[in-house]
Write a structure and sequence with these properties.
The chain is an alpha/beta fold and about 280 residues long. The protein has seven helices and twelve strands. The strands form two sheets. A nine-stranded mixed β-sheet has the order 6-5-4-7-8-9-10-11-12. It has a three-stranded mixed β-sheet with strand order 1-3-2.
Length: about 280
């Protein structure tokens, strides 16, 4: 029986012509260029400030010193804040925290065009130098042109702010109870001298509150404080005030920087009145 032979023919693949290679390269280049142009157009449309603009800024929180208008004006003064889609909320938060009264800030988006801002404010404890001492012992520097809070005025180094305020509380309690006097100002000078000015205008010089050496040497930095060193001097003033009528109204200052007693300087108008008598 005769068999069948099957013959398979193979052929070598035909190579691409030079024209086809060039056409393929040009086509690939056109595709890449189209992708780049499309991506650029998409990026520009997304970053355009008018693309998804913040049309409503909703400010929440119990505000006393800031207002929704102040927050909005401050927010809109930064060009980067205008596009809601590309907005970096972390950067917006840190930007808003630069407002002097802003203590904490929370920011969130709500599409299509709303930005929510929740604020808490610092609470003022006292005037401090040309700023405000907050309840967190931080000194801030807001615009005080319209600020009229009846706070005590404190002066000294900022790193001593908490100490000065605590001392003010101690002084105030003592003078209110013993002399019915109110403090208007407390100074801790550059050479660590304590001075108090009362609302009557009388100044009390209390001196240092650090232990001194019998030899009279300067106190060394870091010397342990004697927290009760000034109380005997305030008691001396209380005794003088109880013995001398109208002392707080007629004296310019009382110098209590003595181991015993005190020096009193009377106001000029008081002297003139006494001489006329």
């Amino acid at each position: 029986m005769a068999g069948y032979r099957v013959r398979a023919e193979t052929s070598e693949p035909r190579g691409r012509t030079r024209g086809e290679v060039i056409f393929g390269i040009l086509f690939l280049a056109l595709v890449v260029l189209a992708d780049v142009l499309l991506g650029r157009m998409l990026y520009e449309s997304m970053t355009d400030v008018d693309a998804i603009q913040v049309r409503k800024l909703q400010v929440e929180g119990h505000l006393h010193y800031l207002s929704e208008k102040k927050v909005a004006d401050y927010f809109l003064s930064n060009y980067d804040n205008l596009n809601l889609l590309t907005m970096d909320l972390s950067r917006v938060r840190h930007y808003l925290l630069k407002m002097p009264w802003a203590r904490t800030v929370t920011v969130r988006k709500r599409l299509p065009d709303i930005l929510y801002v929740y604020l808490t404010e610092y609470r003022p404890a006292a005037y401090f130098n040309n700023g405000i001492l907050t309840g967190d012992w931080k000194v801030i520097h807001p615009d005080l042109s319209g600020f009229r809070e009846p706070l005590v005025h404190l002066y000294g180094r900022e790193d001593q702010a908490e100490k000065i305020f605590q001392r003010y509380l101690s002084f105030s309690e003592f003078l209110r109870e013993r002399c019915n006097a109110e403090i208007w100002r407390v100074d801790l000078t550059s050479d660590f001298m304590w001075e108090i000015r009362l609302t009557s205008g009388l100044t009390l010089y209390l001196g240092r509150d650090l232990d001194t050496f019998a030899s009279g040497r300067e106190e060394r930095e870091g010397e342990r404080e004697n927290e009760d060193a000034l109380l005997p001097r305030l008691r001396t003033f209380a005794e003088l005030n109880s013995r001398i009528p109208n002392l707080m109204e007629n004296a310019e200052y009382v110098d209590l920087r003595y181991e015993t007693g005190a020096a009193v300087k009377w106001r000029e108008d008081t002297r003139e009145d006494e001489e006329k008598k």
